[in-house]
Structure formats: C-alpha cells, structure tokens
Design brief:
The complex is a heterodimer. By secondary structure, chain A is mainly α. In chain A, 77% of the residues lie in helices and 0% in strands. In chain A, helix 21 (492-502) packs across helix 22. Residues 267-281 and 530-540 of chain A have low confidence and may be disordered. By secondary structure, chain B is α+β, with helices and mostly antiparallel strands. Chain B is built from eight helices and 18 strands. Residues 348-355 of chain B have low confidence and may be disordered. Classes of the chains: A mainly alpha, B alpha+beta.
Chain lengths: 540, 355
Amino acid sequence: MSRRWDLKWVALTLLVGTLLVVLVLWPIGELIAVAIEQYGLEGADAERARQSAVNTLAVGLLVAVVAGSLGALGALVTERTAVPGKAWLRVGILLPILIPPFVSALSWTRAYGPGGLTDDLLGVSADGLFGLFGVVAVVAVNAVPLSYLLTVAALNSRVESDVERAARISGASPASTLGTITVPLLAPALAGIGALGFVLGINAFGVPAVLGSPVGFRTVTTLIYEDLALSARPEAFRRAILLATGLVVAAVTFVIVAEVLLRSVGTAPRSAAGSGPQLAKVRPRWGVAALAWAFVATTSILPLVALGLVALTRGVGLPPVPENLTFANFAEALDGRLLGALLRSVGLALLAATVGILLGAGVAALRKRRFGGVFGVVVLMTFAVPGSTLAVAMILAHGRLLRDTLLIILAAYVAKLWAVGHRAIAGSAENVAPHLYLAARSSGASSFSAVRTILVPMLRPALAGGWVLIFLIAFHEVTMSSLLYGPGTETLAVAVLNLQQLGDVPVSSALAVILTVPLLLVAIPLLTSSRIPRRFLGTG
Amino acid sequence: MTPAVRIEDLSVGYGDTEVLRGVSLTVAQGETLALLGPSGSGKTTLLYTVAGFIEPTAGEIEIGDVLVTGAHGGVKPEDRDIGMVFQNYALWPHMTALDTVAYPLRRAGRPKAEAREAGREVLALVGLAGLEERKPAEMSGGQQQRVGLARALARNARLYLFDEPTAHLDSSVQRSVQEEIARRRRDSGAAAIYATHDSSEALSLADRVAIIREGVIIQIGTPGEVYDRPVDVWAARLTGPASVLKAELEAVTADGLDVRVGESRVSVPASGSPTGPIDLLVRPEWVKPGGSLKGVISEVWYRGPYTEYEIRTPHGMLTTSMPGWPVMSRGDEAGWTIERAWIPDQAGQDAPKVS
C-alpha cells in the first residue's frame, strides 16, 4: 500500500502532533528549563529535600521487593498449585486494582491503626502503620495485582507446563524444578516487575499522604504537595520543581528498564498445541488456599469492612453496634459541596475516558504512517511520567491560562491516560492480522466499510476495556488533582484526602466508601465471569 | 515375565468430563505399543497419567512390578523411571543441548563432569555431535526433538513415553526423526508407548496398536490385525484408506462368510450370520482390475508412486490404487474384482458383532 498523504491523515497527524507538544513535550521542557534556572536550595530546605529523596528511594526499593515476591508467590499458587476456588482467589488477589491506594491507606488506619477495628476488638493496633512500614505495606499491597498479572503472563508465555513436566520426568523434585527451570526462566521478567514496583513505589502519593505526612515521614511526592499546595514561599516552589524533575528522571529510567526486561513476556514462542491438558485431579491444597485467603482478608477485605463500619457509625471511638449505626455520614458526604465533587469526578472521568480512547485510537491509526512510531513512544513515555511531575509541569506550561479550572485537571488526565487507551487499542490491533482486512476488501468491501464491519467489531472489546480502565483510574486519581484543583474544582478523591487531613474520620470514610464500593459491586462479577482475566491469565 | 506397564480399568476426568474411561492394557518388556487416535481422543491424557502428571479417578497403573497409582497421587513423576519425549519438545530455553541432556543424570546424583561426558555421548548417538552448546532457539525443529529424545535416553529408563514426537516437525524431517526414535528405542531394549494420530507411523513403528476413541480403547492388535480386521468403519478409516460397499450374505462356510456385491462374490474370514444388507469393507489394494463388478471412474489422482481411482459402482464408492501413471481417465467404465474384504461391526460402535 502506498503511503499517500491524504488530507485526513495530514489532519490527524497535525492534531496528534500538536496535542503531544502542548500536553507533553512543552510542559516537560518548561519544567526542566525552570528547574535548572531556579536551582539552588540551602539549609533546611535542602535537608528536607534530601531526606524525602532517601525516604522515597527506600519506599521504592522495599515495594519492588515486597510486591514482586508477593505477586510471584500468588502466581505460583494460582497457576501451579491445586488450590480450591482458584477463580475466586484470583479475584481476591486482583481486588486492590479496584481500590484507590489512598482509600486502602485510609481503610488500613481504620482497621489496624490506633482506635481502629482490631484495637476496639482485641486491643491490638499496629504502631508502625504510620511511617515507612505502613507506607511500604499499603503501596506494595496495591502493587501486587500488577506484579501478579505480569508474573502469570510470564509463567504462561515463558514456562510452558510441559517444560516443567519434562524436568519432573527427568527426575527433578518439585523444589528442584522450581529452582533449576521455573525461576531461571522467569528471572528477566521478575527483574522487570521489580523495576515497575520501584516506579510505583516512588510515584506513590496518596498512601504516603495518609500514612506518612501525619508523622513527618515525607516522600518526594508529598513534599511536592506541601511545597505547592500548602506553602507560598518561592523557595518551596523551586524545590517542588527540582523534586519533580528528579522524580521524572528516576521513573522514566526505570520504566525503560522494565520495558526492556519485560519485552520477552508474551512474545516467546508458544507452540500451537499449547501445554497439553491441565493438571487435574490432584489433591486440593487447602492449607495453601487458607494462607492465600488470609492474605487477601488481611490486606483488602478486613480494611474495607473496617472502613465501611466507621462510615456507618455515629462517631469516632464508638463501637459498631446496632444502636450506634447511622446513615448520617453518607447524608453529610452527599450534601452540597461534596455532591459537587462527586459529580465533577464522574464528569472528568467520563470525559478523560472518551477523549483518551479517541486519541489512543488516533495514535494507533497513525502507527504505520510517518511519525506514527514516534507518537506511540512519546505517548507511552508520558504514562511513565509521575503524576506529581506531570501536574507541576502542567502548572508551569498552562497555569497562567487554566489555573484552578477543571480544564487543567482534564488536560493532565488525558495526557497521563492517553497511553492506556493507546496501549489497549494498539495491543489489540496487532492481533487483527492484516489479511482479515484484506479479505474484506477482496470480498468487495470499501476501505471504510471494511474498517466498520471487520476492524471495529474486532477491536470493540479492547475499546470498551480501555475506556473502563481510563474511567477507573481517572475517577480514583488523587495525585494530580490534589496539586491542580482550585476553589470549586475539588474532585471527590481530593475531598476525601482533605477531610482525612482535617480529621473528619466518619465523613471521609463514608466518602471513601462512595468512591470505592459501587465500582467493586460492578467489577467483581465482571472479574469472575468476563474474558478479561481469562485473556490475561491465559487459561482460556 | 512382568509386563513393563500394566494399566487396569483406568479412568480420568476433568471436572464433569470424562477423558478416559475404563482403559486396560499391558505393554510387554521391550515392546512398543502405538496409541492411535485423533486429536482430543485422550492419548496425551493417558501418557500423562502413566507419567504421573495426572491422577486417575479410578483404576491402577503398574510400571514394572511397582504399583504407581494410589493415595496422595501415587509415585511422583520423578520417581517413576520413565523417559518421555514431548510433542512440543519441552526443551528448556535457558539451557544448552548438553546441559539439557546432562540434566536427568545430574538429578540422579551423578557428578557434573561425568554427567556432561555421558550427555556428550548420548548427543552423538542421536547425531548431534558438535551442537552441544546450542540453545533451543538456535536449533531446527528436528534438532530440537533429537535433543528431546537424547534427554529421554539419558534417563536410561525401562519405559519410554512418546507423545506425538513428530507432529510439529516438517514432513521432510518427520521420517528421519521417527526412524531415529525407533532405532534408539530398539537399542535401549526398553518398552514404549507411542502416541500418534498418524496411522502409517503407528503401523510401521509398533509391535501392537491400540486404537483410542473418545477416551475408550476400542481395539488392540498387531499392525496387521488392526489394518486387515478393523473393529468398525471408524477404526478402518483411522488406520488407512477404505471403501464401504453394500453387500448381501450368500452362504456361511467353514472358512467364514461368502458375500455378494452385485454379481461379484468374495469370501470373508468372519464368523456369525449377519442378516440384511452388510457394510463390506474394502482396502484399495484388495481390488484388482478386470472382473464382474462394473463401475465408472469418477476421479483419478496421480500420487507419484501410484495412481488412485475413485469408482462409482451401484453398491457404493470404491477406491483403489495401481502403481504408476494413470491408465484410465474420468468417465471410463471398467470391471473390477474384490479379492479380499472384511466385515466390520455393523453399528460402527464399541463391540464387534462379527469377529
């Protein structure tokens, strides 16, 4: 096919190119320029920046190790062990995807913190919850689904069951098979997953904001928030810019490392006949299942229950017995100002999802055209830019015009989540072999009707999946919106965070429930029945 | 002598579906049993159950004189003394050919240098001398499967399991790998179960052939038996080309049955006295040109060594083949003689009514 410069392709190229410059390259360039220009911190300012960098590094490294090993362990349990109730266990492990990390942090404080559920019932509370330990624990638990899914994908593409069976029949015990075959084959993928865990750790904002800030445990992201949102000193502004620059360099570097290491996942040759029959009729491992469920219960279910109970209880410190239960917190949460925040969050998420998918489709359509590959790379790199950095960059580039408007939040969302739409569509478009399109053309379809009747129906699940994913992330987003909101543009997530910091435990809990539970109710049946997890997990 | 494998009334199920039902068979020491069936018939499941990867829902398996099935999954795969060759090679992507072949010896506790030396010998045996340091990605399919074979041989087991080892190979190397496997198996003197969906592979390699359909063994016999006297039409078509003609019973004789196809008569080495029309099974090479069975040639396929003719007769379509170039063309009418025939089970189901 000739690469004709049709008008529509020129227009689309210009549109995508312009938007990439305005939304990504310009802000980042501006950020780095100002950072270099303004460099020069002294005394306490410098010390605080240094300490936050050390804390961030510690969080990143620990999250990489903890989330990486927990995810790998979970993958081995569900993919290589005869645990009963496998489908539900997968949902349990994936549950944190559906919970915004800062809501997890809130719910952990309600469950295990002083005055929390375990304190009420057993007189036990986790003193270390506030500080490094708690931040690492909650960020890691929220990173487990990603690490689990990637390990499962790596297991299924790199380590066919027959490869392990061949070791067993060669005389290797299960442990020796794991050590000599499975783990060496997974090693690059595990390293890549660790790199991603590191990025998730250093980019985390909501969790350290809830669990770190109260005890003065600052990370780069929370210090940026303090400097931008809570301080008016010019030194603080300079420091925020410097920190944001450092963060983006670290994050992008490690995302590139992860991309390279994870490239093998999913592309390794998988023989047509697959791995033969699944292992069946082996003794169910009730002990393993119990351990796995204990993990899910401690990390996700119990905290959510505690959060719900606090939201339903009349006042802080009252036991959740029937006479203390009330819906008043919900009524207050949905009253006036906060209802506005809910509507803004929904509206922003709807817009971000729709625009993100359309732009993602645009980049995917340009994939084979001039500059198409470059666009794809730039869009993916934007996803690697930490939310804190992107928000600072947005203020620098577009703040003069759009400061404190919903538009700047939407712009940040689209810039960040464009990649999600692009990846969903591009990944799926790769699977639509060109000959399907050509077969339609040779059956008499025009190029437009071939796209309409063949490509769009085949891409529909990917479009829908990408849309839902962007909606979910945008709805739960707190890092960028907490830096970009102004009077009257507060989102629901920001409202929860602010109420929490003001100490309004019941109402912030009720809001957190509103933010989380409806999605859980919709998503859990989908996770158990739909083809999404099955495609991910390769068990279809 | 104790058989190499004895399988007794074995059943395997995944959830609600039964994959194997009441499978019983034995393999004698040094014998090769081909397991012939279409894909999805349960061949791999049976091999995996013998290997210990799948636990049966009922029945037992003895390997040598050891009962390997039983409580807690029975004897573990690594303790079953089996060498196995997998359909998709199942080579370890991170290991060289030599490390792969030395692996079973290392697991058996042999020192590294000794295991590698022995591995080198086995690789040379299967014609891979010089490729010791290659990884799977650097080898052709045929070479990879030779490594798979060498790995199984290095185990020095008393029983080999071959799970369609040539199914993924190009047809040009299929034959040579097949022959390599047959030779090495023979030299080792071990027994083998060889799963395949290819009848010519099964008939040429095996001492006996077990035909499996939907998890049930429907016939076991020597290659000659299953080819000449297939239990039903389905088994006949699985083991080779076959035509089915409508015939009638003429007489019951001491040697079997005399049946009539139109004007043509043939005696069949079968017993019993079927009533009504008979489905008569005829292999291509059982038909000779000239004779009283008239037919019109409807298709002619030149296959190289021989030419295949499809003949429309009043009693059904008849396929035959003759060496060399086509000597007749479409539309020609000719007479034929059926020299041999077989009466398979008329219902085409499990048990033969005449045998």
